[in-house]
């Protein structure tokens, strides 16, 4: 079977490294992002290594552009078998400087962009009774963090979206995997000015993601010490959780992972 894998946010970070690793494993990768020059460099690198990659410059927050890109992918490469919804942005959204435009921009990319992609690929996957939808979420989606309302909301929404779909699709040939990384060394996390415990090297993180994809795990949160702590925090009473985080700066950058 020809594995046609769409990777959004493929111009750098987790998306670019996933493209390299999946292409080396035999996937034909469709590279989606806004930065066409970076995508072309990555596609050339993959081609020179013996893989197959095509470039599609698109802003995933624009549904018409997503549909146009997906149409081209299926025409040029064949039916989409795997969607890796990785495109994501982050920005500080402190309560005392709350800005709905900024929050909306984050949600349009991190959540609506995924919805637009799924809206296109899912009918074909169901018709063929085969497919894999992979969403790159974040440990920041488990509980709210100060200064990160927009980012946390987008990742929490993504987790709920994928879980709902997974439950309905479990009797079909379409698998759904939610990936929730902690801190990974990428261009986005370089902008963070706060401690990033258990931060992982990019190649290590992406190898873990590929392994979880291969096993079609329903959810994979890592690294385990941070994932365990974050999951445990969901059961901490609000008054304790609030007190723990009260002294953290409301200006803190969100915990960007992708």
Fold and architecture overview:
This protein is of the alpha/beta class and 258 residues long. The protein has one domain: Rossmann fold (3-Layer(aba) Sandwich). Helix content is 47%, strand content 15%. It has a seven-stranded parallel β-sheet, sandwiched between helices. The C terminus is likely disordered.
Short description:
It contains 8 helices and 7 strands. With 258 residues, the chain is an alpha/beta fold.
Secondary-structure element string: EHEHEHEHEHEHEHH
Largest sheet at a glance? 7 strands, parallel
**CATH C-level name:** Alpha Beta
Summed over residues and divided by their number, the pLDDT gives a mean of 92
Shape: globular
Compute the number of structural domains: 1
Helix content: 40-55%
Q: Give the C-alpha Rg.
A: 18 Å
Q: Work out the oligomeric state of the chains in this entry.
A: single chain
List unreliable stretches of 5+ residues. 249-258
- The CATH architecture can be given as 3-Layer(aba) Sandwich
Q: What count of helical segments does DSSP give?
A: 8
The class by helix and strand makeup works out as alpha/beta
Strand percent estimate: 15-25%
Strands of the largest sheet, in order across it?
3-2-1-4-5-6-7
- CATH topology (level 3) name: Rossmann fold
Q: Terminal Cα separation, in Å? A: 29 Å
Tell how many strands the DSSP assignment holds: 7
What would you give as the CATH superfamily?
NAD(P)-binding Rossmann-like Domain
